[in-house]
Amino acid sequence: MNIALIAHDKKKDNLVQFTTAYKAIFSEHTLYATGTTGTRIQEATGLSIHRFQSGPLGGDQEIGAMIAKNKMDAVFFFRDPLTAQPHEPDVSALMRLCDVYSIPLATNMGTAEILIKGVEEGMLEWRELRNENKGENQ
Question: Is 60 tagged catalytic?
Fold first, then answer.
């Protein structure tokens, strides 16, 4: 599975702790992240992560493009709802794309715990099957 990891500045520590706790699960998948978040996770866990630009410089949009091309299976986006973000339109667009393409999106620790358990138990395999079937029909 392709999994995106994104965090606002005040939530980066939380996402690093989360990926460290579930390193064994994440290591079985292809990981993508926005700039600084990806660097921090990679340094803390040693996981291989494809890093895009930082969020404000277009990283959110790069991940959004993967979603629009049906090349992303899950998104962990630890948002900071109490701090104004200069790139809020990009954040909203990314969340909208997750809704449009039915991509599971965890925006806080509570939903992330549930989503990672679903990933671990193979509950998102329907996405891979759907993608395989689309390939056959094209």
Answer: yes
In angstroms, the Cα distances linking 74 to 71, 125, 138 are 10, 11, 23
Q: Which of the residues 60, 80, 90, 99 is marked catalytic? A: 60
Higher per-residue pLDDT: 87 or 130? 87
- pTM score > 0.85 for this model? yes
**In degrees to the nearest 10, what's the CA dihedral of 12, 48, 99, 102?**
-150
Higher pLDDT, 20 or 86: 20
Torsion of the alpha carbons at 88, 80, 100 and 26, rounded to the nearest 10? 130
Alpha carbon distances (Å) from 131 to 34, 67, 72, 104, 127: 24, 12, 10, 15, 6
> Is it the case that residue 130 has pLDDT exceeding 70?
no
Q: How far is CA 38 from CA 5, 8, 136, in A?
A: 7, 12, 33
In order of start, what are the domains of the chain with their CATH numbers?
A: 2-133 (3.40.50.1380)
Does the CA dihedral 16-22-25-27 come out positive or negative? positive
Residue 138: what pLDDT? 43
